[in-house]
Structure formats: C-alpha cells, structure tokens
Amino acid sequence: MQKNNFPPIGLGTFKQTNDSLIDIVTEALDLGYRHIDTAQFYKNEHLIGKGLENSDIKREDIFITTKVWVEHYNQEKFISSVEKSLEKLKTPYVDLLLLHWPPKPHEFFQALELLNQCKEKKLCNSIGVSNFNITLLEKALKMGIKLFTNQIEFHPLIDQTIQKKFLENHGIRLTAYAPFATGQIFGNRTLRTIAERYHKTIAQVCLRWALQTPNTYPIPKTSSSKRLKENIDIFDFHLAKIDMDVINQLNRVNIRFFDIAGLAPEWD
Ligand code: NAP
User: Fold this and answer.
1) Ligand 1 centroid to 209 CA: how many Å?
2) Which of 22, 78, 79, 86 could bond to 50 as cystine, CB 3.0-4.6 Å?
3) How does pLDDT run across 97-137, given as a tens digit for each residue?
4) Element housing 252 (H / E)
5) 148 close to ligand 1 (CB < 6 Angstrom)
6) pLDDT confidence of residue 262
7) How many A from CA of 106 to the centre of ligand 1?
8) Is ligand 1 within 6 A of the CB of residue 35?
9) Cβ(248) to ligand 1 under 6 A?
C-alpha cells in the first residue's frame, strides 16, 4: 500500500523511550505499518533497531525516517551523527533523512549541503526537512536540493492551507506530524458525530481525512497495541465529500501545538 513511493501511514515514536517500543515496532510491522518515524532527538533509535531486527518483514519493504538534530548541523558532527543513527537502527541506510528543525541562518547552506552529502554517500535514499516555512523551503529549492518531504504539524485543527498548496505545487510530500493534535482532537464534537455515523472512532476518521487529503501522509503515535490496530484499520471506508468539507472547516480555530513562530525573527 504505497502512495507515491511513501507508505500512506507511518508510526510516530516521539516520547517513547522505554523497552516496550521494541514490541510496538515489531507489532506495527505485523499489522501492516511500513513506515517508522524516529529522530536522533527522540533517543529511541536503538529500540527501533531491535524492533526491526525482531521482525520478519524484509528491510527493503520497510520505510525508515530519522532526523538529524540541530546540534549536529556542522562539519564535525553531521555525517558521524547519521552513521551513529544507522548503527542504532541496525541498517546500512535510512529511506529518508530530515533536518529536524530549520538551521540558523549562518549554518543553513552547510546543513543542507551536508544533508545532500549523506544522500551521495548512500546513507539515505532521500532527503527532506521538517518545520520549514515557505521562505526556507524556497531557499533550499534555490540550492537545487530535491526535497522528498516537509514534515510539519498537520491535523484538522491547524490551518496549513498556504504551506500545503506550496508543497503540492513543488511536488514535495506533506508528512503530517501530530495528526491527533497530540491527543486534543479526541474531544471534538464534530468529529465525534461524523465518527458515529461511520461506526468508526475519532482517530480513524481523523486519519482517513488525512489519507484522503492529497499529498498528505500522517504518522500517528501510540504506545498501545489496541490503538495500533485501530489506527491502521482505516482502509475499509471512505469519507464522503460533504464530511471532508466539514472537517476541512475545523481549521478555522487554527491551533498549533508545536511552536515554530520563535524561529521567524532570525530570518527577517
Ligand atoms: P499524535 O500522534 O497527534 O498523538 C499522540 C497521542 O494520541 C498520544 O497521547 C496517544 O496516546 C494518543 N492516541 C494515539 N492513538 C489513539 C487512539 N486511537 N485513540 C485515542 N488516543 C490515541 O502526537 P505526536 O506523537 O506528537 O505526533 C506523532 C508523531 O509525529 C510523533 O510521534 C513523531 O514521530 C512525529 N513528530 C514530529 C515532530 C517534528 O518536529 N518533526 C514534532 C512532533 C511529532 P497512547 O500512546 O496512549 O495511545
């Protein structure tokens, strides 16, 4: 179930640093998840490596994303940090390597060049960014960097209309992080009403909405086996256009849970 060379749904792993993640990863692969999202910052790449090792699924059928942390955006640390990530993940390459946060202006070009070098050295198959605004995406594109994705906060309560259009126009996939608004989505009455009508849960409606949104790939996180199953059981129903439209309107509240605004002044 690939959609544009990218599994339609991924497993988020932020804030999961105990051994239970090993079984969650193996179980997720058994259930049909084919994309695991991690980061140097999450301090769990070694657990994911063990989960991958315990799985019967072939490496080439799994898509692994990791992200380089900001403290490694320099000549001395960047490539060796990626090599350490690969060691922990027990793999010779990741499918996708991202810059986790925008580099500071003075290190911008170097960080993107180093990211590109990782691809040339075949430490990763593709490269991308995370939390980039349009100005920064344009700068990267001007450098001739081919971006696979921008991983950004995306759920029914945030308005990402402009960024979304930009990504679509430039053939850059939108990886939707925090697709449940870190859990805040579950109290939404509109989503509850829609979910009841489809005999599905709010989580399933939310993920189905993301799936039916063009160019969008959600990466929900759960630490529970039951919810792992629930979150991938979304391929047997389709949201009608009228319900998609209603959910699309929820972004008028425009709530952001991960604050990237503080980065902007440095770029003025
Ligand atoms: P999220 O996926 O929006 O929400 C996770 C929360 O929802 C957890 O509290 C989880 O609890 C709960 N949950 C999951 N499935 C559920 C279900 N079916 N029913 C009820 N509750 C459910 O938040 P997130 O973890 O912040 O974001 C997802 C992933 O995106 C991260 O794990 C990470 O991989 C990535 N991310 C990237 C960035 C970045 O800067 N690039 C930033 C944030 C996140 P349980 O675990 O108890 O199920």
Assistant:
1) 16
2) 22
3) 999 999 999 999 999 999 999 999 999 999 999 999 999 99
4) none
5) no
6) 53
7) 32
8) no
9) no
d(CA 151, CA 168): 13
Residue 42 annotated as catalytic: yes
Of the pLDDT bands very low, low, confident and very high (cuts 50, 70, 90), residue 36 is very high
Give pLDDT tens digits for 131-182: 999 999 999 999 999 999 999 999 999 999 999 999 999 999 999 999 999 9
In ligand 1, the atom with minimum distance to the C-alpha of 180 is 3
Among residues 148, 108, 144, the alpha carbon closest in space to that of 127 is found at 148
What does the pLDDT average to over 35-57?
A: 98
Radius of gyration, alpha carbons of the chain: 18
**Is residue 266 pLDDT above 60, yes or no?**
no
Inter-CA distances, 146 with 95, 99, 172, Å: 14, 13, 9
Confidence of residue 200 (pLDDT cuts 50, 70, 90): very high
Tokens of 93: 């390459």
SS3 of 183, please? helix
**Of the candidates 166, 165, 164, 129, which has an alpha carbon nearest to the alpha carbon of residue 146?**
129
Pocket test for ligand 1, best of 94, 132, 222 (most atoms within 8 A of CB): 222
In the reported structure, the alpha carbon of residue 204 is separated from the centroid of ligand 1 by a whole-number distance in angstroms of 13
Query: Does ligand 1 lie within 6 Å of residue 36's CB atom?
Result: no
Is the pLDDT at 267 greater than 70, yes or no?
A: no
Cβ of 17 closer than 6 Å to ligand 1, yes or no, is no
Residue 264: pLDDT over 60: no
